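Appendix B, record 7
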Amino acid sequence: QVQVMESGGGLVQWGGSLRLSCTASGFISGPYAIRWYRQTPGKQYELVAEIPRRGSTKYGDSVQGRFTISRDNANNTIYLQMNDLKPEDTAVYYCNLYEFAKWGQGTQVTVSS
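Structure tokens (predicted):
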């Protein structure tokens, strides 16, 4: 069974950085396509970044230039490097293995002002 797991969330000050990790396991081999979403209470899911199996990465307008999604094939892991974090980036971040309709449990990111 395919499973997805995120890690790396936490509390950081305004302007700080965090790196989230997403790992897929089970009957799956990389490279695989991932989307990072985030959600705040009362709001819809917002697409943050996407890395396809092949081709270019994509970013949401609100994180363009601050976040970077990348792949480590050796470790079968997708990273989301988040720099210059702002209070409005506070959310639960989810990793979505969208070709398999699998989601992780989410990881909380809190940016203090």
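Remarks on this record: The CA atoms of residues 96 and 103 lie 5 Å apart. The mean pLDDT is 93.
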